[in-house]
Amino acid sequence: MKMLDTNIRDLLNYQKGLSISGERDGRISLAGKIFVNMIYDNFPVQRYYDVKIIVNPENVYLSDVFETGGYIGEYCHKYKDNRLCLATNIDLVISNSENNSLVNFCREYIEQYFFIYEYYTTYGFFPYGDRAHDLEGVKSSYKEITGIKDDLDLTRFLLQICRKEYHYRGHLPCPCGSGERTRKCHPKILKLMTDELVYKQICIDFLGMVKEFDEHKRKAK
Amino acid sequence: MTDKFKLIERQEDLVKLLEDADITYSMYKNAVEKYTAVVDLLSSNGIDSHIYPQGSFAIGTVVKPLRRNKDADYDLDVICEVSCSKAETTAPQLYKKIKDALESSGRYDKKLHFFEECIRIEYADVGGYKFSMDIVPSVPEEIREILKMKSFTQRPDLCDTAIAITELDNDSLGWGKSNPKGYEKWFSEVNERFHNYDFGVNTNRQQIFQNNLTVFSSADEIPLQIVRTPLQRVVQLLKLHKASYFSNPNVKDFSVKSVIIATLAAHSAQKAPAHYNTFELLDFVLKDLQKYSTLKDNPTLFKALNPDKGIIEFDGTEWKIENPSNPMDNLANSWNEDNEYVKYFFMWVNSAIKDFDTIIGDQDLVYGSVLSKMFGEGKVKDFGYDRKYKLVSPKPIESNVQHKPWLDYENA
Description:
The structure holds 2 protein chains of 2 kinds.
Chain A: H1 4-14, E1 18-24, E2 27-40, E3 43-54, E4 64-67, H2 89-98, H3 102-123, H4 134-146, H5 151-162, H6 182-185, H7 187-192, H8 196-220
Antiparallel strand pairs in A: 1-2, 2-3, 3-4
Chain B: H1 3-21, H2 25-44, E1 49-53, H3 56-59, E2 73-82, H4 91-105, E3 112-114, E4 119-126, E5 129-140, H5 143-152, E6 163-169, E7 172-178, H6 180-197, H7 199-211, H8 230-245, H9 258-269, H10 278-291, H11 299-305, E8 313-314, E9 319-320, E10 322-323, E11 326-330, H12 333-337, H13 339-357, H14 364-375, H15 377-382, H16 385-388, E12 395-396
Parallel strand pairs in B: 2-5
Antiparallel strand pairs in B: 1-2, 3-4, 4-5, 5-6, 6-7, 8-9, 10-11
């Protein structure tokens, strides 16, 4: 895994319009312009955007990114404080587990975010879809990762993943209930479980799903 | 460099690219020679006919296809009006007569392609572009039909040149109505104001003269068909932008027809000051069209607030853009078949406004990117604008890194 200093220097070298602007509560912030240069569906975007990035030292993919130029108006994937909603946390955390590179984070999430914004405002739809808000979006991430379509089956699956006493081994029956061994049925989950940050995020999201399930039960009564 | 100089420079760069995208005098002359040769051939086969261009070639708004599309053809659409009444022949008979004459000559041989409604002749490359001519057989329209058209329009004088063209109707070839000469006449009337007023037209004429010194002894000899006014330039720019916008495979089926662009631009331009240059007129036309976007939400309120706006009509169920030369022809027919046409028309207008606004004050790179989208990366490089506007080739987004944005309301 990359050291934070190296990671930041690599990013500043990649996006030369950025510089270190300060530090607060142990988090370094970067500010300046990033260059987006992408094309998809014959639609190119080539533009500079003003941003601020507050680097998360534990998980760089969970860094806060703000658009500071006032370019993006009202938009369904931007918070009121101009923080950009790049992806679900589980998507970000999984990307971090593959490589914790700020350059890749910038390329795959920040730059792509601006590309998607331009595409959406030009055509009125997202190039490859977006996630539903809140927990529905989170569930859709897990459904894509696991291939499990039903909400209840998904929750049960995640329960098995979260249980500390479930010593997860590939030869055991897959928690999805298929009857197959895990290493044949859901090998990707097996690999992801080895990352502590991914495991932590799965537990957080699982609790969110349980809370929602309880709410529904209460309302049904 | 002040902002004003930058603006002028950017406009000049765009005009240079546009002039390059236009047909040259030699291409124009070449096209005329080609269809004149067809007339002569038909005459030698006993067919008395008159061939004339229709569409963009007729009204002077042709743009060459982008070189990035290898299959792009430079298409010339012509009408072959045969001197014979509708009562004397059927559409299939007329088509066959012309087909047989072209085939028997042996002149076109493998260059001939027969489509259901027209006959295509493919020529050798002209200036690196594949050039083809689509010939639509036709006869003068019946007087009874012309009188019917006249009763529905405020411009009955345009209807006299109406023709009956070969057109597919439920899998069989029949007669359809058309009036390209009437359309050309209408467009020319609107365009005339800009011919008479704009100094840019004279500049354009001088430039053509300079580029063709061996052909013309003075600028006055240059045919009007190749001199461009701000209105024609506006139509060309909008067509180029439209082609770029609808190159997205997800929306290409909902592209705006060129005749709609030319008709709406000309209608809007009738209200614009005659002294407007290309960019002033472009802004005027686009902002005028943008106002119609509220029509779909509340037609009654729109009409009450905009009594002078009637280019695009919507009564709550049907969209209508009347063909000025044929009152029976609703140019917005497809809009009534699928609402996506309406949606993407107005989204395209907004996109055009945003892109053309980059001429004023936006980043060099962004403006350069707009030029690249409309004219192609290769052409922009040929003019050295990639260096001038600091352009780099955009990078494709690969399928394994397509991430979806999301919002967490709890943290909003």
